[in-house]
Amino acid sequence: DYGTGFIFAHKDVNELAGYMKTFAHDEELRQRCAERAYQRLHDSWNYELYTDCLQSFIDYVAQK
C-alpha cells in the first residue's frame, strides 16, 4: 500500500490481479486510498499550479 494504491511489475498479471482482489474485498482500503489520492491531487494539482504551468509554456513559446 503506497497510500493511494499499489505499485506492481508491469508484466506481472498475477500481482495486478491480487491487488484488484484486495481492493474489491477491502472497502476501507479503497476509501482510504481514494481519500489520499484526492488530497494529493487537491494539494498539488490546483488552478494556481495549472495557470503557472500554462503561463510558463506561453512565455517559452513566445520567446521562440
List the keywords.
about 75% helix; elongated; about 0% strand; about 60 residues; mainly alpha; single chain
| Proportion of residues in extended strands | under 5%
Oligomeric organization of the protein chains: single chain
In total, the number of strands is 0
* Morphology call: elongated
List the total number of helices.
Answer: 3
Unreliable parts = none
Provide the structure class.
mainly alpha
Alpha-carbon distance between the two ends: 45 Å
Summed over residues and divided by their number, the pLDDT gives a mean of 91
- Bin the helical content: over 70%
Order of helices and strands: HHH
Question: For the report, how would you describe the main beta sheet?
Answer: none
Radius of gyration: 18 Å
How is this structure best summarized?
The chain is built from three helices and no strands. It is mainly alpha-helical and 64 residues long.
Give your account of this protein's structure.
The protein is mostly helical and 64 residues long. Helices cover 75% and strands 0% of the residues. The protein has three helices and no strands. The protein has helices spanning 13-25, 27-44, 47-63. The longest helix is centred in the middle third of the chain and has 18 residues, at 27-44. The termini are far apart. The model has no long low-confidence stretch (mean pLDDT 91).
